[in-house]
Design brief:
The protein is 71% helix and 7% strand. A hairpin with a 2-residue loop joins strand 2 and strand 3. By secondary structure, it is of the alpha+beta class.
């Protein structure tokens, strides 16, 4: 059970010191509350408007909030705040504040709030507090001007930088595209005979030459056999028959066409297009042979006829051999080009693939450049996302602070707290035995009887007189001392503010 009587006696014993602490703190709080200068606060409201012409990708609420954060950081820089303070003479002509102190005061007196979210308008409220209402309004309006200018510079600057970047990108990709076209053209020129696009032609040409070689070899074999037979007959008979003369090319073509017609008739009908075509060609060849006429047999006899026939056969053989050599050379070239086509196809495919990749990037860059031009025109014409002032700052007519009641109550609360703290601290530091309960708790013994100290009447009066004198001294001397400090040394509000600042509490 709490011994109220004991604690009341302790309270009365320590009352002068506790009363002194309470009076000092209350006096400081009251002086601060009374003498604290009035402050005026005003604000301006700004709205982030959506684009008027086109809805850009960066016009969402998140990007608007991010834009306001960037502008706020730019506004609250050291250079901006000091420039505003000097330009508007926020701290007066005769202030003794350092640059860092001015900066801290500007930041402490400036309040910026942002509101917005999904399906909500994004807004910013800029406030400033100053002892002079005109200065407060001027500072907020200056901040508003800086915010609008920063927003315009930021958005136009971003649009111009984006436009310049994509212009450079388009030029670079155009150069890369031209260079790749030149490489492809050079490769095609260097490998004109082995490109994949004319592979089918070369394969058809190869088949045609192979068939031609077979015919040439057959004709050469026929001429060589004819020459040998002619020589053999001449050696046996001494004469050359007239029908042994070599056939002219027209005659050989007529024989070949008749043989082909005989083979085709076994497969196709008489009225088929191919049979009719062969008969027309045979008719043309017969007219050509008849136009040449037959050589006179009497003009050729003996050795002269043999020499003429052999000479004709040899010239024909030579012509066939030259034609076969040319065909063989062309076949070798075709085989080499066809063999090289596979490697050229891979190399050309790689070049064309790189070309297509560059072309795709170029097309994307051109599209981005066109969009950047549109955004740049929109931003320079102030038709994009922008910040507008919906309520400018006005000169306040009523002070917004300080809250004098709160300051006075804070001083009283601090005095009561210090007094209570002093009482509790003295109780914790006192180790003397003053009650039977303390005797039992410390020595674990139970006293049989307790004889209290009995004051005499004179002693009691003397103790009460001392207590009353101490209380009167605290109630009179301390206020007089505070009044002397306030009038002769430094006002209590300024002294309290300096103490609080030194302690880092405000």
């Amino acid at each position: 059970m709490i011994d109220l009587r004991f604690y009341w006696s302790l309270l009365m014993r320590r009352l002068p010191v506790m009363l002194a602490l309470f009076i000092i703190c209350s006096a400081f709080g009251a002086a601060w509350a009374i003498r604290a200068p009035a402050t005026y606060s005003t604000s301006a409201r700004l709205l982030v408007e959506n684009p008027r012409i086109l809805e850009s990708r960066d016009s969402s609420a998140d990007s608007a909030n991010e834009m306001l954060q960037v502008i706020e950081q730019q506004l609250m820089t050291r250079a901006n705040l000091i420039d505003v303070a000097n330009k508007l003479n926020v701290f007066g002509q005769n202030n003794t504040l350092s640059v860092d102190e001015k900066l801290d005061e500007m930041r402490a007196n400036t309040t910026i709030r942002r509101t917005g979210g999904r399906d909500e308008a994004t807004m910013m409220t800029v406030s400033f507090t100053s002892p002079d209402p005109r200065i407060a309004a001027a500072v907020v309006n200056e901040f508003t001007t800086l915010i609008l200018g920063s927003n315009t510079r930021n958005r136009v600057g971003v649009a111009e930088n984006r436009l310049a970047f994509f212009q450079q990108e388009v030029e670079r990709l155009a150069q890369d595209l031209d260079g790749q076209n030149a490489r492809i053209l050079e490769f095609k020129r260097a490998n004109a005979d082995a490109l994949p696009e004319n592979l089918q032609y070369r394969q058809d040409r190869q088949s045609l030459l192979q068939e031609r070689m077979a015919r040439l070899e057959s004709d050469l074999a026929v001429l060589q056999a004819q020459r040998a037979e002619m020589v053999r007959l001449f050696e046996q008979t001494g004469n050359v028959p007239s029908n042994a003369a070599p056939q002219t090319p027209e005659q050989q073509q007529l024989v070949a066409l008749r043989a082909e017609l005989n083979s085709v008739l076994g497969i196709y009908a008489e009225d088929s297009p191919r049979v009719r075509t062969l008969r027309n060609r045979i008719a043309s060849a017969e007219r050509a042979v008849q136009a040449q006429g037959n050589p006179a047999d009497t003009a050729n006899s003996g050795n002269s006829l043999l020499d003429v026939n052999l000479s004709q056969i040899d010239s024909r053989v030579s012509a066939l051999q030259n034609e076969m050599a040319q065909a063989n050379q062309e076949l070798e070239n075709l085989r080499a080009s066809i063999s090289a086509t596979a490697a050229n196809t891979i190399a050309l495919g790689s070049l064309e693939r790189d070309h297509q990749n560059i072309q795709d990037r170029y097309n994307a860059a051109v599209a981005s450049l066109d969009q950047a031009r549109q955004v740049e025109r929109v931003e320079t014409s102030a038709q994009g996302q922008r910040i507008t002032v919906i309520e400018a700052a006005s000169v306040p007519g009523q002070p917004s602070g300080p809250n004098r009641k709160k300051i006075a109550l804070a001083g009283i609360s601090l005095g009561l707290g210090l007094a209570g703290g002093f009482f509790a601290l003295m109780e914790l530091l006192n180790n003397a035995i003053r009650r039977p309960a303390e005797l039992r708790s410390r020595f674990q013994i139970t006293p049989l009887a307790v004889i209290p100290y009995i004051e005499g009447r004179a002693e009691r009066r003397r103790r009460q007189a001392v207590l009353m004198a101490a209380i009167l001294a605290v109630a009179i001397i301390i206020p007089l001392g505070l009044w002397g400090i306030h009038t002769q040394y430094m006002p209590l509000d300024i002294l309290a503010q300096k103490i609080v600042t030194r302690l880092g509490l405000g």
